[in-house]
Amino acid sequence: MGPLAILGPGVLGLSTAQWAAECGLETWLLGRDQEHAEAGAHEIHRRWDRSCAKGQMDPEARDRALGRLQAAPFSAAALEGISVLLEALPEDPDLKTPALALAGRWGTPDLLLLSGTSSLPIADLATRSGLVGRLVGFHLFVPVAKMAVVEMAIASGTGASWVERARGLAFTLHKRVVQVRDQPGFAAARMALAQGLEAMRLLETGVATAEDLDALMTLGYGHPIGPLELSDRVGLDLRLRIAEGLTALGEERFRPPALLQAKVDGRFTGLKAGQGFHAWNSLGRRA
Fold first, then answer.
1. Sign of the CA dihedral 84, 41, 93, 196?
2. Pairing relation of β-strands 4-7 and 27-31?
3. How far apart are CA 157 and CA 202, in angstroms?
4. CA gap 17, 134 in Å, rounded
5. Half-sphere exposure of 235 (CA within 13 A, CB side)
6. Using an 8 Å Cβ cutoff, are 5 and 79 in contact?
């Protein structure tokens, strides 16, 4: 597996770049400019230092990973020699498609192009970016190091060689591949969203508190986190956007509750805002 470029030093991009370097891949973190990219790389360095301080990572392993991680602005020069580009930009087609189109033009004809979207149809992104038959959906779960699966969404007509190379990357990252049909929300986001929306409706009608609803799923069903906490971590604005998109397609079961709309309108969008269905501190923990 050749060098991997990750476009977007956000939550997904940082988590993926960190894990890819730990897995032995030469990894380039690409930002809108050098400062943006280097800030992301510095955060990954900080995470590795913290892991070493806690005895969770060997200092020699950290140093090897550090040597594999580079930062650069997104440009034609940054894609020279790159084998795979994973787009990890915010969940907005108006941001993703121009960037993917540039990557398709700047990269070599055999550059494997992946989108890290969790819900946007790959066929639509491919059409808008001029990558029909070439773009593969590669939905990783955060934190990437701990989540042992990748949801691969394959649009009709996608070349088999692209799919097999994407599977090869998943193998290198130690992920089980779940290949799903390309559709809005794929499979994982639909299942998680349905549970989250129902929990919101129960909260809205006063059935139980947010903490207790989450406890029923963690303590009763063994889920690692409850549906309302998960919604906070994903971002309530993203949850709302996906729900609205599916509702617009005629899927009424995904119609967002008024409570979700009110949270987003009030900018209580979850962990990133410090407040959603739960309160969050600056370390990303429940306050």
1. positive
2. parallel
3. 42
4. 23
5. 11
6. yes
**Distance (Å, whole) CA 166 – CA 134:** 11
Write out pLDDT tens, residues 254-267: 999 999 999 999 99
| Radius of gyration of the chain measured on its C-alpha atoms | 19
Please name each of the domains of the chain with its CATH number. Answer: 4-181 (3.40.50.720), 188-273 (1.10.1040.10)
Angle at 201 between CA 92 and CA 278, to 5 degrees: 70
The structure tokens listed for 32 are 């809108």
* Helix or strand holding residue 233 (H, E): helix 227-234
The owner of tokens 């990558």 is 131
- Tell me what pLDDT residue 207 has: 98
Measured from the Cβ of residue 90, the count of other Cβ atoms closer than 10 Å reads 15
Phi, psi of 281 (to 5 degrees): -95, 180
Cα angle 202, 203, 209 (rounded to 5 degrees) comes to 120
What pLDDT, in 10s, does the model give residues 221-260? 999 999 999 999 989 999 999 999 999 999 999 999 999 9
Task: Give alpha helix (H) positions in 112-226.
Answer: 122-129, 160-172, 188-204, 210-215, 221
Please give the pLDDT value at position 287: 84
DSSP H or E stretch at residue 86: strand 84-87
| The two three-digit tokens of residue 149, written as one number | 């699966």
Q: Which two tokens stand for residue 36?
A: 């943006």
**Upper half-sphere CA count for residue 100 (Cβ side, 13 Å):** 32
Cβ atoms < 10 Å from Cβ of 228: 25
Of the candidates 116, 115, 139, 118, which has an alpha carbon nearest to the alpha carbon of residue 127? 115
